[in-house]
Amino acid sequence: MRRAVAAAVLALGCSFPIPFADAAQITDVSPTLAPTMGGATLTISGTGFSATDNLVLVGGRVCPVTFQNALVVECTLPALTGASQPIRVVDNGTGEASPPFPFGALPPTITAVSAASFPTAGGVTLTIDGANFGAVDGQIDVFLPSTPTPEICDDLHVEQAHTRVTCTLPPGEGTSVPVKITVAGQTSAPSSLSYDPPVITAVSPTRAPAAGGTVVTLTGTNFGPSTTVTVGGTSATCPAASISVSEVSIACVLPPSSGGPPVVVVTTGGQSSNAFPFSHEMIVSKCDAAKFNAAAGYAKCLLGAESKGDKKGAAADPAAVAKCDDKLTTSCAKAESKLDDCTQTPACSKLLSWGHDMKMSIIGNIR
User: Fold this and answer.
1) What is the pLDDT averaged over residues 325-350?
2) What is the Cα Rg of the chain in Å?
3) Which helix (H) or strand (E) holds 88?
């Protein structure tokens, strides 16, 4: 066309300039955003396109042309991610390209977040289903912004291109914790997950004096970092450092009895555990009886050592006293290892302390 116009001007002998037609201009595209998986037909409207020989680039990637004329070009979109993937139409005959026209991929959306369980310690595989996730691991981040501190879901992998990713659940606690996914700078609307509630499976000891002060160990699952413990509705003292790394045990100092039913309850991230039975009624267990026997045997042993010393007109033999100490330690430890009904698990050390006082009062300073 341009050549024909120029030839006509020369034939007429005109000397004034005749402007050439403008380069291609894009005026509209449909759709305005595209799924990251590609495959959709992109319709480009405008002016100045080649009637038969156009090249379409979307974010620098070729969009294969399926239909074209001077006003409309259609092509099949490639896979793409990101909000800024401008379109250009290039006339292959002249090499002239249209100015870039704004275009981009649809942002990611989450339809489901699942896992076999959601332990507060994390570490399990989290599966996220949705759309427009792309196909490149390095372009994707999954984060939980409302855990005690914002956490990234590590070890991310595209399980199914554009529709499913997996990652490792970070530690956390609570319900309705937001989950977001970012793909090439575009962030989804939040979905959510709920961490599992705490569960108590054992308390040791199961009995303690009503005066409080006894250290008890709770065993179970999902004892998160903000765990609190109540006994009969009264808060126990549970140092954060006493929570195990895997969040399956915690040691607490019992409060004095409140007079109510002394059940033990753990609360983590606003979720409460089962109520585990406890008792302030002290009864003599087999373990306690074995320790009482050990204490009685210790006293008898010390008196025997003192008696032998008296016969010789001297103090008790230190070696004989040391044997009494060893016998007490062995007997007490044996009771705790074989019996599971001990009401005071630290009692062995207490007996040894008591034994020292006994030595001082009965035997005096042993030389």
Assistant:
1) 72
2) 40
3) strand 87-91
